[in-house]
Structure formats: structure tokens, C-alpha cells
Amino acid sequence: MTSTEQASTTRPMIEFRDVTKTYDGGQPAVDSLTMDIERGKITVFVGPSGCGKTTSLRMINRMVEPTSGRILLDGQDVAEQKAAELRRSMGYVMQSSGLMPHRTVLDNIATVPRLNGVARSTARARAKELLDVVGLAPELGRRYPGQLSGGQQQRVGVARALAADPPVLLMDEPFSAVDPVVRAELQSELIRLQRDLAKTIVFVTHDIDEATILGDRVAVFAVGGRLAQFADPEEILRAPVDDFVAGFVGRDRGFRHLSFQEGEDVTIHPIETIETGRLADPSVTVNSPWTLLVDAEGRPHGWVPEATRESVTSQADAVPGGSLYTRGDSLRRALDASLSSPSGLGVTVDDDGRVVGVVRAAEVFELIEAGRLDRGRANYNTAV
Amino acid sequence: MDYSSSNLFVQMGEWLSDPENWSGSRGIPMRIAEHLGYVGLTMLLALAIAVPLGLYVGHTGKGRVLIVSGVGILRALPTLGMVFLFALLFSRGVLPAVWALVLLAVPPVLSGIYAGVSSVNRTVVDAARSMGLTEWQILTRVELPNGLQVMLGGVRAGVLQVVATATVVAYAKADGLGVFLVEGTQINDNGRLFGGAVVIAAVAIAVDGVMALLQRFAISPGLRTTRPVARSQQESGRQEAVASAQGGTT
């Protein structure tokens, strides 16, 4: 029937209908939550501790049963499905990987396919492919979880969740236990994966930054299990609906919002460079207050100030640089690169990490102001 | 038996080296076989009682208080006293002795199984449930293999106690290694008494060695690998549970 086919492709993947969860006699952990979670998109639940975001997530796969209300998965009430089968139809990734320590990485990944009756060899072959998908070397498959780093364990956790190719992924603060560098790496990997897989992902985090980076839609929960705002991340940062959301989004929201402004137009100025190999030769002088130190491939390695040129004879003596701005990235990155640089010049690199020039904070600000004017005009026009 | 000296150790050595004591239905090998037979029977009964109970309580968390206090009471029972009590109450023969030994073996096995299930990282169990394992699958595929180290520790402690205590069977029927002790006391034969004690000790050590090997091979390599990566908190928590369980069962 065409009508039902249409219904199943256009209706939200997950629907919360007036869902409340109250633990014995206490305040509601989730208070009459009604929301639609779109198919093929990343929806992030974000909020402070005790706001019911994890409870809401765990009600989707019935790890927590709602006190009242209904949750529909693809139009069907989850309460009417067998809990174990329902859970197998969704991938689940948690904060600590939750891998089974007695099984190898491959067997861990193969868990759900094996439960679904897939032959061991088939399940393992699929697990091997998934190792590659999440960016892990195939030989790690024979190891045990205890032999992996935290970041590797989280990748295995993601691979395991993907093993049965479920349409829905539930991710409960999956990257909060790893260090910031690995977290950023895992976040960009998830975005890359999602581009290919287009799963319906529900992602819980307490980190508004992570929420705005990953989310196609962001649901901000307030203490007491109230859904305070549910919108695009750009809108959450630009136009928080109330004091709670504004406060939660935080002091830096103006800065974070720059993540959504493209840096295509920012002017890249040339910069004088000196190669690391030529530092030891005192006859090589520098002619500008700050000269950028680069290696043979043109990658930046810090700054050489003109005033102290004589004392800089090796890479170790150079003044460490700030963050790098990859050409075309957001205004936030451009601004951060220039602000964090000791010279005030934001080092700009191409996709291969080679220096192409520098950006200046003042010019980034000009672009921000220009963008604000444009938006003001657009708002005025739509209002009229 | 005539000894060449009144020295206890010389007598013991002579008794142990007398070939006559190593053959026939009253010889040491036969007695060891009988002894191990009783140990095996006792452990079968004790495991049949303690394993399902320990797994149930460990997995569901129901009846935990009952288990802890029950184990405490059982531990306080004097085994020899129970042999005589059962003999008076029920029947003659070896069965009263075997049941008394079962009462001795159940506490360490039960607390070992229970502690084994409890020692499994709750996060792992939660993850398993979230992935869609049924409760039975969680018990058999997650809690059992991961708690096996602690569980076998409890079983091992139980076996050791039963090997040492199965001598009480000799009071009910002239069987097992206890015979040497009973006879040695009755006829004032110190060589036999202490030689018998040495054989019991040797059997206990050998059985414990076999159990240790079994424990080693039954455990997944993933649970005994040295960790090159920083240990997580759950890991050290698990090892504390292991330590306390083993401390509690020996």
C-alpha cells in the first residue's frame, strides 16, 4: 500500500508522546516529554546532570520503562515489543565501552549478529570490515579489550553497535571518558561515518560544544526532565528561548556560534618563513618581527622572533605556535588561530597541513560584523 | 608394626616406605582412591546445591541477606559433630558423613559463586542487556565466564576443606585416608598416624595443584592479560572483589 509506505518514510523514526518517568515518590526524571526524532539525522540530548537526558535515551530501548506516555519506534509502540529483540534492533554505545573483557575484539563486535543467529565465520568477517570502518587496524581484532586504549575501546564500542546494521544508534555520552584530543578525533570520525551510513542517531552529552558540533538537531533538557528547547544547533546558540538555555549554552556561545559561519572570505596574507634546516646557520637572518618556522614539507613548527634570532638554532628553541586554521574552515577556527598565536597571526594551512599564509583577528572581526549586518537585513526583510 | 626406633619421624618414614602399606585393599593407593571418591561425591552434591543458588542470588540480587547469614551459620557447624548427629538421626553407613561434608563444602562454594557473579563489572552487564542479551544469556555468556576466576576460587577452597576433612568418614565406615588416623590413635601406632597425616596433606596439595591448573586454563586470556594501558577503576574494583571473595572462602 502506497499510503503506509509513505507514512513509514516520512514519519519520524522515534516519537515521544507525553512520556513521564517518575522514580519512587520523587520529582519526575522526565516530565511529559513529547518530541519527534528525525530519520537519518543526529539528534543530541544535552543538559546538566539530572535533567533526564540519559533516562529519556534509555526509555527508547526499554532499559528504563516510562511511568506514563508512549514511545513509538517507526510508528510502533516499543512497550509492545519484546525488550531483548527491540534492543537488538538498535545499536547502543555507552560511556565506558562496556566491552566484554573475556572476548576478543572481533567476538565483541560480532555479539549482536551472533545473537541474531548469524554464523560465526560470517559474523567475524563482518566484524573485520567494521574494524576498518571505525579506523582500527585489523590485527587489533585478536586482542582483548583490556589491551586497548580508551579511545580504541570506544571505537570498538561503535563498531559493535553498527555490527547488525541497525537503523537506530543510541549513544550515551560515548566520548566523555576519553581525553580532549581523542574526543575531537572520535567526533569527526562519527560525522564522517554518519555521512555514509545516515543512521538515526540519538546522542546524549552534557557538553554543549559536542552537541553543537555533532547535532543536526539539539534538544536542551532542563533539570526536572523538562525539554527546554529543541532546535538546530545554530539556533540554540543564536536564539536561546529562555534564561536556562542561555545560561547552559554558556558565556562562550557568541564564540561557539562562529563555528557556523564559514571562513571562506577571510583574507590570507603571505608570511615569511624559514626552514628548520637553515636555523643553525647564523648568516641566515630574518627580516620581519615574526618569522614562521617550517619543515621541508612546509608544515609549521613555531615562530622565530627577529629580536632573538641568534639564540634560535634548532626547532626546540622556537616559540611554540598557536592552533592552526585550515583554509576554508569556520570563522571560529580562524579567530582562535590568530588569538592563540604568539605573533597574533593565525597560521593557515591547506588540507595537507602545509602553510599557505596567516589570518588576522581584526579582519575576522570585520567579517563577523559584516555577517551580522547581512543577517539583520535578512531578518528585516522577512519581517516586512 | 615394629619400628627400629622410638623417634616419631623414623617411625613415620618406615611406615611410609613399607611396601606392604602400598598394596591391597587396605593399602595407601586404595585408601586414596576411596578418599577421593568421597570428595568427588561430596563436591557433586555441594555443587548441585550451591551453584544454582549462588548464580540465582548473584544475578538477581534477591536473597542476598539469606545467603550471607546462612553461610555464616553453616560455617559454624562442627563437621564431626554433624557426622554423629546425622548417624543418630538418619542412618548408619557413609551417607551421614557425606552429608556432613556437604554442609562443610557448601559455604565456600556458595559464597564463591555469588561473589563471582557480583564481581562482574556492572557496566559490562548493563551493556550486554542494552545490546539485547536475554537474562539467561547475560548469566551464561557474561557473568559466568567473567566471574569464573572468583567462582573457581570458592570451589577450590571447598575442595581443599573437604579433602582435609573427609577423614571423618572413617568414623562411620572403615574407608578413606581417615582410617590411618583412627587406627593409629586406637592402636597407638604413631608411624601410621603421622604417615597417614602426611599422605592426606600430599593428596590435598596435589588436588589443589590440579584445581589451580584447571582455574588457569578455564579463564579467558582476556581476563588475565597484563594491561599495557592504564587500568580503569572498574578493573581495580574487580580485583578487590576477587581478593575479598578468596579471603572469605579460605
Automatic annotation (TrEMBL), chain B:
Transmembrane stretches, start-end: 36-58, 65-91, 97-117, 150-172, 192-214
Entry keywords, A to Z: Membrane, Transmembrane, Transmembrane helix, Transport
Main localization category: membrane
Homology family: Belongs to the binding-protein-dependent transport system permease family.
Domain of life: Bacteria
Name of the protein in question: ABC transporter permease
Localization per Swiss-Prot or TrEMBL: Cell membrane; Membrane
Membrane protein topology class: Multi-pass membrane protein
Region (Disordered): 228-250
PROSITE patterns named among the record's database cross-references: ABC_TM1 (PS50928)
Species the sequence originates in: Arthrobacter echini
InterPro entries tied to this protein: ABC_transp_perm/SBD, MetI-like, MetI-like_sf
Pfam family of the protein (one): BPD_transp_1
One GO CC term on file: plasma membrane
Domain named ABC transmembrane type-1: residues: 32-211
Gene Ontology BP annotations: glycine betaine transport; transmembrane transport
SUPFAM superfamilies: MetI-like
